[in-house]
Design a protein that fits this description.
By secondary structure, the protein is of the alpha/beta class. The protein is built from 13 helices and 17 strands. The strands form three sheets. Strands 1, 2, 4, 5, 7, 8, 9, 10, 11, 16 and 17 form an eleven-stranded mixed beta sheet that branches. The protein has a four-stranded parallel beta sheet with strand order 13-14-12-15, sandwiched between helices. A two-stranded antiparallel ribbon has the order 3-6. The protein is elongated and about 80 Å long.
Amino acid sequence: MAAEDDYTAAPEGGITISPVKVQKLPHLTHHVPNLKTFPNPLDRNQYYHPSDGFYISPSDVILRQITYDLSGTFPTPPPHLAYHRAGPRKQIFFDPSITSVAIVTCGGLCPGLNTVIRELVVGLWELYGIRQIYGIIAGYRGFYSFEPMALNPKLVEDWHKRGGSVLETSRGGFDLEKIVNAIRDREFNQVYVIGGDGTMRGAVEIFNEIRRRKLNVSIAGIPKTVDNDVGIIDRSFGFQTAVEMAQQAISAAHVEAESAVNGIGLVKLMGRSTGHIALYATLSSRDVDCCLIPENEFYLGGKGGLFEFLENRLERNGHAVLVVAEGAGQDMIPRTDAQKKETDESGNPVFLDVGRWLKSELKSWWDKDHPGELVTIKYIDPTYMIRAVPANATDNLYCTLLAHSAIHGVMAGYTGFVSGPINGNYGYIPLAEVAEAKNPVNTMNHKWAWVRSVTNQPDFVKR
């Protein structure tokens, strides 16, 4: 099987591109030798007609970086990273007639969860002829606490039209020994894990333990985070639906603000560590006057602060709309010692409601600086409305491609990987790499400058 290789692009026109380093992708044969291979059932599938180039080879890769500076002005960069392309392989390492599959969803809700489950079931059933497919109930704890749910295409037929997770989900409940014992005892050969960065870190531990025990089990991750904070991949599923739904909240806030004397519409959007939803919703709406995200510090009073900006905007327009990501300004909110130590079931710090705090601060500022003058502040938090909706058409298609990419990789014997788009092409990324990769908003690039040009908000840099 393909491991880590280096390739150097042939020079063209006197310009040399630095070597390409292909990231090593774990394979079952690395810890379970002498596995039998089988012809890919797609050869006999009535809907497919494999021809030259249909099956992916180990030499098919995707570059992580696709832009280059060929001027020679900068030092020679290190080898560029590349990942193996996703897609069907000519030989598979599982006998579909005896293969048993587990699918589990963990963490919070996200548009598209049910679509991913549906497409995994349909893809395994229709593409590869696997009939033993099970859903794990209530996240990681479901491996050892509940009986799995048998799944088939008829049962999941309309799941893509439903929000939430029919399999149910939860945070926490990660007990490595119990989970791997359940995988072994129930004779699962393939495990598909759908979740965010915490879930992916758990999947890394499961993969390592399975490899240590030399079990013939392949594990694949499908990254789920509505915040779009998973690194390397182009975007996470559900993100586009979230941005679309956020427009409704922003529109409502704009109507409320515009209909009042000195009206301020305040919308809190999801985004614990990254402000992608707030950023894209702001750019899409054009009704937003100020966008606050975790990556960009801000302050309230004084010259160049939020209060001064809003005062000027109210004087000019009579109303303003403010969008804030849930992770923005957390260091500014007063906390008790107990609140500082509080964590959720996944071990993440518990955030206080920045929207309610900001509304209170805005009201106090106005009452102090403008006594007797009217002001209306309407606060909208659409978090659970956004999380609970079904995926839109774009995300539904995306979920299908994610699911099928994962299936093809697992059937080819790969394990400990995540499927996802890299520069528009689907590839396989080692689980450990995705579990640690972040995707913060780059406030130094053109996109954030575009946000500021649309809103005309200050940079919040004290001078």
